[in-house]
C-alpha cells in the first residue's frame, strides 16, 4: 500500500514524498492507522524498522488538525513529548520530526543532557509544539518550571526497554504522572519485559498492540566472516585486517567505554584517524564525532552498543566486532549498520577463545554458521581453529531454551 492510503494532510504527504518514501514498512502499516484514530499504541519493533515515522506522522497529523481548528491564533505551547534513551537517538528523532514537518508551521526542540540548559530554555521560550528529550533533562526542566505539560496531547516512549535498562523508569514515571490524563500515548519497545508491561498498565488506556518480528538474520547484502585469534593479538590482527581490506567507511564495536578509548588511541598511534562514540563523551564531542564520520573526515568510528543505537549512516562498508557481543540480538543490530538499502557490506568479527560461547549463541539465533578465516601472513601465536565449535546435545538444548526465553517464546522439547 502507498502512503497516500493513510489519508494524511497535504503538508505531510508532501513531506513524505520529498523524503523519498513510497511504500510504508510493516510497523508503519500496522501502527499508523490506529494512531491516526487517536488510540494508544504499543508497538514491539526495533531500531531500523521505521517506527520513528510510525509515531511522528500521526503525532503531526493530530497537532496540525488541532492547530487548524482551534489554535491558529494562539502562541505555540508544548503539545507533544517524545522521550528517548540516548542523545544520539534524540538527534535522529528530531531530524525526522523536522523533515516530516518541513511544509508545516510545527516547531520542534531537543532537550538533552550534556548541552546548555540556558540555550534550551531560550528555545522553549521561542515556542515549540514538539519536544524530543531524554528523561533526566526533561524532568530537570519541569522541576525548574521552564517547561509546562498542561497542553500536552501526545506522549511517546521510544525504546522503552532500553530506557528501563538505563535506569530512567523513575524519571519517566514522574513525567508521565505530570502529564494530562486525557492524552494519547504511543510506546515502542524492542522487547516487552515485565517492567515495561507494568508501565503499559500505568500509562496507557487499552492500547492497540502491534508486533513486528525481530530480525534474526542479517540482511542479504551483508557478508560475514569470523577470525579466531588469541586475545593478546586482537589489536595487531585488527590493524592487519584494516590494512588488507578495501574499507571506505567502518564502525568498530567494542564492549566497554574504556576499551573504546584504548582502541582509538592505539589506531591513532598507528596513523589511522578515528572518531569515538560512547556515553562518557560530552554532547559536543558526540556531535563532532558523528559529523566527522558522516562527512567522511574520519574513516572509522569506534563505538559501544548503547552509544551507537540510532546510527544511520549510508556509506558504511564494514562493521568490525572487536569484541563479540554478549547478546545475539546485538550482533544482528551491529552488522545491520552496513548493507543498508539493498547495498552490500562486510561484517568481520574477532573472536578470542573465551568468546566462543557468545558466537555459539549468535549462530543458533541467526540459524547459520559464520564462516571462519585466517589472515594470510599474520604471525599467529596459536594456529586458529577454522571449524565451528559443535556443542554437546545437552548444551545445545540449554542454549536453544535460553534463546527462546530471551526472545519471549516458550521452547518445547
Folded structure, characterized:
By secondary structure, the protein is α/β, with parallel strands linked by helices. The chain folds into 2 domains: 3-211, 3-Layer(aba) Sandwich (Rossmann fold); 222-402, 3-Layer(aba) Sandwich (Rossmann fold). The protein is 42% helix and 15% strand. A 7-stranded parallel β-sheet has the order 3-4-2-5-6-1-7, with helices on both faces. Strand 3 (108-111), helix 5 and strand 4 form a beta-alpha-beta unit. Helix 6 (135-143) crosses helix 8 (169-178). It is elongated and about 75 Å long. The two termini are 40 Å apart.
Please tag this protein with its features:
413 residues, Rossmann fold, alpha/beta, 16 helices, disordered C terminus, 7-stranded parallel beta sheet, single chain, 13 strands, 2 domains
Number of strands: 13
Going by CATH, the homologous superfamily of the largest domain would be P-loop containing nucleotide triphosphate hydrolases
CATH topology of the largest domain: Rossmann fold
SS class: alpha/beta
How many distinct helices?
A: 16
Spatial extent as radius of gyration? 23 Å
Arithmetic mean of pLDDT: 85
Q: Unreliable runs, pLDDT <50, ≥5 residues? A: 392-413
* Largest beta sheet: strand ordering: 3-4-2-5-6-1-7
Biggest sheet, open or closed, and with what strands and sense?
7 strands, parallel
What is the level-2 CATH architecture name of the largest domain? 3-Layer(aba) Sandwich
Order of helices and strands: HHEHEHEHEHEHHEHEEHEHEHEHEHEHH
The span between the termini is 40 Å
Residues in helix, %: 40-55%
Strand portion: 5-15%
Amino acid at each position: 500500500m502507498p502512503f497516500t492510503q493513510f489519508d494524511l494532510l497535504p503538508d505531510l504527504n508532501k513531506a513524505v514524498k520529498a523524503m523519498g518514501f513510497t511504500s510504508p514498512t510493516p510497523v508503519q502499516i500496522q501502527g499508523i492507522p490506529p494512531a491516526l484514530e487517536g488510540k494508544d499504541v504499543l508497538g514491539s519493533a526495533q531500531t531500523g524498522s521505521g517506527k520513528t515515522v510510525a509515531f511522528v506522522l500521526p503525532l503531526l497529523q493530530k497537532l496540525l488538525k488541532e492547530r487548524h481548528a482551534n489554535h491558529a491564533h494562539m502562541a505555540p505551547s508544548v503539545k507533544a513529548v517524545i522521550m528517548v534513551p540516548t542523545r544520539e537517538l534524540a538527534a535522529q528523532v528530531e531530524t525526522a520530526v523536522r523533515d516530516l514537518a518541513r511544509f508545516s508551521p510545527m516547531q520542534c526542540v531537543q532537550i538533552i543532557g550534556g548541552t546548555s540548559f540556558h540555550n534550551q530554555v531560550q528555545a522553549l521560550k521561542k515556542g515549540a509544539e514538539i519536544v524530543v528529550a531524554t528523561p533526566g533533562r526533561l524532568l530537570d526542566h519541569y522541576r525548574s518550571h521552564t517547561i509546562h505539560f498542561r497542553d500536552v496531547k501526545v506522549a511517546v516512549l521510544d525504546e522503552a526497554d532500553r530506557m528501563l535498562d538505563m535506569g530512567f523508569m523513575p524519571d519517566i514515571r514522574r513525567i508521565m504522572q505530570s502529564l494530562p490524563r486525557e492524552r494519547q500515548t504511543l510506546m515502542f519497545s524492542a522487547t516487552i519485559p515485565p517492567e515495561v508491561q507494568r508501565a503499559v498498565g500505568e500509562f496507557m488506556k487499552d492500547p492497540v498492540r502491534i508486533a513486528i518480528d525481530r530480525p534474526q538474520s542479517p540482511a542479504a547484502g551483508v557478508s560475514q566472516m569470523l577470525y579466531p585469534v588469541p586475545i593478546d593479538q586482537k589489536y595487531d590482527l585488527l590493524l592487519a585486517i584494516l590494512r588488507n581490506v578495501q574499507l571506505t567507511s567502518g564502525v568498530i564495536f567494542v564492549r566497554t567505554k574504556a576499551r573504546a578509548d584504548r582502541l582509538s588511541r592505539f589506531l591513532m598511534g598507528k596513523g589511522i584517524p578515528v572518531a569515538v562514540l560512547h556515553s562518557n563523551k560530552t554532547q559536543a564531542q558526540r556531535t563532532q564525532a558523528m559529523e566527522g564520520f558522516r562527512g567522511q573526515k574520519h574513516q572509522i568510528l569506534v563505538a559501544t552498543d548503547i552509544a551507537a543505537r540510532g546510527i544511520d549512516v549510508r556509506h558504511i562498508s564494514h562493521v568490525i566486532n572487536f569484541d563479540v557481543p554478549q547478546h545475539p540480538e546485538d550482533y544482528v543490530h551491529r552488522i545491520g549498520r552496513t548493507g543498508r538499502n539493498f547495498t552490500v557490506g562486510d561484517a568481520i568479527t574477532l573472536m578470542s577463545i573465551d568468546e566462543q560461547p557468545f558466537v555459539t549463541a549468535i549462530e543458533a539465533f541467526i540459524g547459520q554458521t559464520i564462516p571462519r578465516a585466517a589472515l594470510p601472513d599474520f604471525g599467529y601465536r596459536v594456529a586458529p581453529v577454522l571449524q565451528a565449535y559443535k556443542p554437546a546435545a545437552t548444551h545445545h538444548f540449554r542454549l536453544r531454551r535460553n534463546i527462546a526465553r530471551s526472545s519471549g517464546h516458550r521452547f518445547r522439547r
